[in-house]
Amino acid sequence: MAALYIQRENKGASWQVWPAPDAIPPGEIREGASYLFELRECDEAATADLLLDDAPLEALRSLDLRTAKWRWTPGFHAGVADAALRIPGAGTRHFTITTDPDLRKLTRDDFDAMVREILEDTFALFSLSAFRTGIARQRGNQPPPLARLEFLRSRCDELLQSVDAILRSPRHFLCAEQITLPAHQARRATGPEILKSFRAGVIRTERPGLSRLPQALGGRLPAHITVRRHRNSVDIPEHRQIKACLRSWAAWLSGIAETLAKAEPSDDPEILNTAGHWAVRARHMSRKLQSTSDTGFMSDVSEGPAALQMSSLFRNDPVYHRFYRLWQDMNLGLAALSGDFLQMPLARTYELYELWCFLRLLRAAVQEYSLDGITLDSLFTTDAVGGLTLQAGAISVPLGADKALCFQRQYKEYWLAPDGEGSFSRTMVPDVVLTGTGLGDGLRQVIVLDAKYRINDGLNDALNSIHTYRDALVREADTGECEGIVTAAYLLTPHVPATDTDFRTTPLPGRLFHPQYRDKFRFGAVTLRPGMSTDELRGTLQTLVADATQTAR
């Protein structure tokens, strides 16, 4: 029987991926490596094709006529890849391959968390701006950005799992209903029900002879009797809302699929998923959601509003609460929010991390330094139909009159800069800069923060950037000499370090996080990880400012 296997190039272990996929251990299939697919025991192996995300793989020569081989190099792509095996005479077989992130990075779940928190931070900051308008839902005739499609795809899979859990054990309630039955079928009718039925309908009279009716009825009986029955029902408001949401999302995704199918594919080589490919994915998600809305007891649920209302069931039942949380995520993904940062696939997570760090720190700074003098209008632009665009380049947000938080501020050569501050070599663009005189000691501070979506040993290679920023950003003094303007430089990373008592005995990269090291050199790294609470973010901001404003030793 034909079967398809995958194995690491130049390594012996292999796993079957079709027709009965094996459980592949986490980390065995990851980005940045090279793998071989091998189709075995297939009479049509010589003419078979294998495609991943609609791209044909490199075919290799095989000495066995019943075996076909392909080489696959995922590159910097972590996530789910759609595979198609085409065998002449046997049709096309579809399956998926999940690629784990490189060990120096985090997981796909962190990508989803960053997209969710960017959207949440955007809405929270937008509410503090001068704009007095709501954020509309994305219209179905406009293609959404790739990052939101990636996010919605992962939420969709979780949604289906949560609905399956509800379908296995739904909440019921005892429902009373009035039904009208022919007299000979109403065997359990009570006296009051029979008497009430005399008020309407045909009354039948018993033939002369021995009567089988109670004497009080006088030989008369209604032709139809209305009785009251109790039955278990699943037609509760929560189920009606869930069903309506599933159908609403299915309709929205169907419209997006049609729009993407008509759109021109992107010319950006880094955008691995074309519009046509995402149209297929959106249509597939739409069908699954629509099918789920009519599965099991859902077919007996009536119509309701396509919005969840918090109730004791959504609050207290873990299964229903999970659906409510995912409903909130879907609302974030469906909102009419756009921006250049959303036009990136999972392969460019590091760019998303840079903006995520800025928005997380900005939201923490708004809470830390109060609202007086903070202007957030430069972050957003709106359109007439309620859409919101987040600006994501060369942004400077004033935090009062004496400090500001900048994202991707450009430092040109210092002799070309209007304020006389810049680089002495080339234009430099640090990810985040916190600057001003209102950071605690009364002196002007320039704290450079470089976001690096790396962990473990990958951080060692990232030190060059903050060394460069600290040494190359200068201004011209009154004497004509150049003097540095950077008072502190730190890496922002999701890495969680292990440190010793003394920073001198702590190996890299843990040494960079050591409080003594940061305090002594005003240089190092801090942890900024998806999922951190608001209090943790404020604590991180306070730590950065405290380290940077200490008196030099």
From TrEMBL:
Pfam families: DUF2357, PDDEXK_7. InterPro entries: DUF2357, PDDEXK_7. Residues 77-327 form the DUF2357 domain. This is DUF2357 domain-containing protein. It comes from Lysobacter firmicutimachus.
